């Protein structure tokens, strides 16, 4: 199972847990399964079928431009981060 | 003082034929002869000129707008207000975009656009603007993030809520971020030495030489055509379409040559207004902002308040790091706080860290990116504290950083783990550079070092390569060329094809003529568009091998192209150069066109370090930079001269941010120094030669190891200079700019 790192501002939804192990072959499945385990988390991350514009996702350390479609491995780390731009 | 010049150094890790060489840039002749066309050079037949009436108040409600006087002028051709922006969806994002382009309800900063006028000349448009009457209800304003977070602060957006202050309370906090790693309390309990300091940094501007400009025709076919100076052709196209209620395909943008951007040219400051003026007049409309308009009403980068507390053991092991960071967002959402929180402790391995960050509305123009946006403020604070910890533990500042340096496998405070990074290589290069051990001479001279990190960017890019029968190629791309990227992209294609880069003719084309390409920012162009060029060249190579096989009537698997020669692996007699095969192309089959699109991942983040020597005049507070060395891990320098140019340019802008530059705000909320006479960016005689050391720790995510070089070099200068000032006169600076006034204040404070 992938390990999802829960941002501090969402940890009240996971009972204070900083990481949660979640099934899923891609980010979409991981978020849907996280919602089953900890209701309310999906709404914090997703708007419709996309990640919210101010959120990006990193799988195994790399921020992915394809968001919900990114593949997740059996031992992957998944981080939800604030979206940033460059200059 | 010894100021001997250490020539620029490239610590190269891998040699190629074209990559790593220093050819003359493709656009060089056009630029040095003045024939290159910049945004304001666009002058279609029938051109008229637009000007924008801007708010004289920092915060006010618009009661009424009377344009009768302006309309009565014979030279006036059209007038638009926010009421003219209609169509499309009514989402908050669109409403905010339109209000930022042209206010209808409230003005949120001095300079906020309210009315656009088109006239037969710029001066006639200015005269018309003087005849427009606007009644305001003036509101109290707020100019800094800490003030705007106070309970008594005037609220800019009544409907704004934040998790920080609760859902029922209007607030100026528009973004709240919290990162944590380990247990911060346990970390500080382990610390033998703790340093806690507060820092304030002023709002600063990118200071590009060419002001914002746009020329627009709303054609009779219903399409809007824009020529402008922009880093993000597709960004400005899309935002203009949204503001006008059009589909993206109804707008086409042709980027012109660009006189600097540094993060400040991604927004459509005048295009939507010029478009509506053009629609009303059936004429092309040009708007060029004055320098004062540009400083007051484009997108400066945020001022900030930062509190940093760090602790280490007697032996120098970092055990706790904590930051509270409040960045100005300006009038609308989008501060640089996200990146700031990511960067503040990124150079260090530390088990226990916590960062809280806030983006806060203030009555200034909406802030924008500026080279490694958010990182310079953050690492000024953390690198100053690191220097104090090194001094208190009696450890050399390079050694202290090396002891705690982030390496592959280090987990950042925001969570992800670093892949291959080059911080220790940068620190090694600093330690071994002759500058670091050169003697300092004279009183009140000092040396400081600092390092900085930036994440860099990837994302989508598109490249097409057309092969000509004379063996040359045209390379079509969508990344405006700011730092020589036409050439750095072409070099990557040339390396694959085994041809001279001079045989490639790169062209930056309109949004109609190239696949979607993200903007020239985030240090991404040589990385991501370069990757697309590499892949497009591979596509050409495959087609050339196939064509040769067809001509020789052999299996294409038996043909290979290396170093610009196509040959049969089975028969030494069968061999053609790239040029020879290109000459046969049109007689032997279809044209050869290579194409590639990428959504570039595998981004390699970057570290930069500085060594700076300076002298402080303790009578006046003036700082003179005596010697400056920039060391940067670039992954692979495709064109070392342009990399050195980026390092030198970023260093100079960092020095300006450190010593001179600031939005000096009056009590009425207006900028008191909105010209380059008073907003002082460094000039050549302020500076010594900036020595560079290019470190190449290859990024495994790019075919040639590129990391991207445009931004991180601005990060360390303020901290390195602050640390050198302390080394020179024993005064710790906690404010940017470290101007003579601020230095004298700190000297006097130290003297009691």
How does this structure look, described?
The complex is a heterodimer of chains A (87) and B (752). Chain A is 18% helix and 29% strand. With 87 residues, chain A is of the alpha+beta class. Chain A has a single domain (2-82), classed as Ubiquitin-like (UB roll). Chain A has a five-stranded mixed beta sheet with strand order 2-1-7-5-6, covered by helices on one side. In chain A, strands 3-4 form a two-stranded antiparallel ribbon. In chain A, strand 3 and strand 4 form a beta hairpin. Chain A is globular and about 40 Å long. By secondary structure, chain B is an alpha+beta fold. Chain B contains 20 helices and 28 strands. Chain B has a seven-stranded mixed beta sheet with strand order 4-6-2-13-10-11-12, with helices on both faces. In chain B, strands 8-16-15-14-9-28 form a six-stranded mixed beta sheet, sandwiched between helices. A five-stranded mixed beta sheet of chain B has the order 1-27-26-25-17. Chain B is globular and about 85 Å long. The model of chain B has no long low-confidence stretch (mean pLDDT 96). Among the domains of chain B are: 40-139 and 231-246 and 254-282, Aldehyde oxidase/xanthine dehydrogenase, a/b hammerhead (Aldehyde Oxidoreductase, domain 3), CATH 3.90.1170; 141-204 and 300-418, Aldehyde oxidase/xanthine dehydrogenase, molybdopterin binding domain (Aldehyde Oxidoreductase, domain 4, 2-Layer Sandwich); 459-600, Aldehyde oxidase/xanthine dehydrogenase, molybdopterin binding domain (Aldehyde Oxidoreductase, domain 4, 2-Layer Sandwich), CATH 3.30.365.10. In chain B, helix 11 (375-393) packs parallel to helix 19 and helix 15 (485-497) packs parallel to helix 16 (525-552). Chains A and B meet through strand 6 and strand 7 of A and strand 8 and helix 10 of B.
